[in-house]
Amino acid sequence: MAGGTQKLIYSLRWRLAVGLSLLVSAMALVAGALSYRTAFQEAHELQDVQLRHIARLLDPHKPVLKQGLDTESDENMVAESTATIPVSDIVVQNINSPRLNLIFGSPIAQRQLQKYAPGFYDFNSGGTSWRVYIHAFHHPDSRVVLAQQTAYRNHIATESARNSMWPLLALIPMVWLFTGWLTHSLFRRLQQLSNEVDQRRENVLSPLPTRSLPSEVRPLVEAINRQFIQIQAAQEHDKRFIANAAHELRTPITALTLQLAQLEHSTDDEAGRRALLAKARSGLQRTQQLLTQLLDMARAQNQHAEPGSGTALLPLLRGLYTDLLPLAEQKQLDMGVLSASDYTLAIDPADLRSIFKNLLENAIRYTPKDGRIDVACTTAENTLYIRVSDTGCGVAEAERERIFEPFYRVAGQSENGSGLGLAIVSTLCQKWHIDISVDNTEPPCGLSVCLALPAGLWQPSKAA
């Protein structure tokens, strides 16, 4: 019982079959009831028409329409009064005949009928219900009464109504069988598709066939195929990422291994030893930075966006400037913030710090000596624009989209880097629904990265 209930609740096929069957069954029952009522009324009307036609065929001079009892004896009258008239018979009698009292079993039946004008009436007399038709010939005083027991008329009408209702009732089980077969046939292709997907191996992401599917289901399968394409692209992206990460890690590790081997076979020259140690230390720092960026990239891809309580932008930038000041001083770079107002950003502080740290590090790395790096904030149409600009060499328009790919570095650059900084920024911006765009500064002598924060992610600081 529980299994049947679960199937009815969660199976679209069963719900459709049962729903259609119940709907058609209810309509058949309503149609049967209406048909029964209509046929019952039509049968009564037909019997009334029959009485009218019989009345028109009568001859008022026939003995059956005589008015009195003539020579009949009282004994015959009593016998006639006690005789049983078959219920199927149609009684025909002159309206002035005393026989009406005997037929209807009431001493006042004749007087009551004489009060009626020509037409149809439901007449109760002597405990029996009759359908009476009074017909007038050439003048109103010459009238005849045609009567038939209502019980027999109802019997005829009921039989006629039942005969009209049986086909509709017989349709109900046929509808249940046909609906079950139809839904099973319609959903057979879906079952085949489900079996095909279930039998696939986990690495098979080829599109599912849509040619023979119903038009209502085809959009769902097409959406699944698009998901397959995205999963396949994500797998390819992960494979490239792992291969590039392995290559990037292998290079400094190989260099460190060679440097350590040189240290083992070096002479007693202290200056040479220190030079080798400095190279090894620099290689370790680059490896550590690469591992840190790999971890940041993994965290950005796998964590969901959870808005924080709010982080003030200007204090965050001042802290980053303090941390990056030694790198900027090596190139004598001028770093500033072009904003008179402070803003509170509803972004996780770690993500926000990672975004601006990578943007500033990238600007410091590719800005030549005595250059300038600025962070500017503007607002327009409920959007906060934060622009990080430098006076470096810029990026060609054809390469601006690719600089956000992991491990991609613009050709011809002598600066060391892993190619992960802007990829981390792009991933975090997608995570927080921040639009990011890249352009060269005017005149074209540097790179400008613009972050557009929609309403809900920012608000002016109270201290502003």
Keywords:
single chain; 464 residues; rod-shaped
Low-confidence stretches: 68-83
Which shape, going by the Cα principal axes?
rod-shaped
Helix/strand order, N-terminal first: HHHEHHEEEHHHHEHEEHEEHEEE
Binned strand content: 15-25%
Number of extended strands: 12
**What share of the residues lie within helices?**
40-55%
Give, in spatial order, the strands making up the sheet with the most strands. Answer: 6-8-9-11-10
Query: What is the average of the pLDDT values?
Result: 78
Euclidean distance between termini CA atoms: 68 Å
Specify Rg, calculated over alpha carbons. Answer: 51 Å
Report the structural category. Answer: alpha+beta
Strand count, sense and barrel status of the largest sheet are:
5 strands, mixed
By DSSP (H or I, 4+ residues per run), the number of helices equals: 12
3D architecture notes:
By secondary structure, the chain is of the alpha+beta class. 54% of the residues lie in helices and 15% in strands. It is built from 12 helices and 12 strands. It has helices at residues 2-10, 12-56, 74-82, 99-104, 109-114, 150-186, 188-198, 218-264, 270-302, 313-330, 349-366, 421-431; strands at 91-94, 119-125, 128-136, 143-149, 311-312, 334-338, 343-345, 372-380, 383-390, 435-440, 447-453, 458-460. A 5-stranded mixed beta sheet has the order 6-8-9-11-10, with helices on one face. The chain has a 4-stranded antiparallel beta sheet with strand order 1-4-3-2. Strands 5-7-12 form a 3-stranded antiparallel beta sheet. A hairpin with a 2-residue loop joins strand 8 and strand 9 (383-390). The longest helix is centred in the middle third of the chain and has 47 residues, at 218-264. Mean pLDDT is 78; it is low at 68-83.
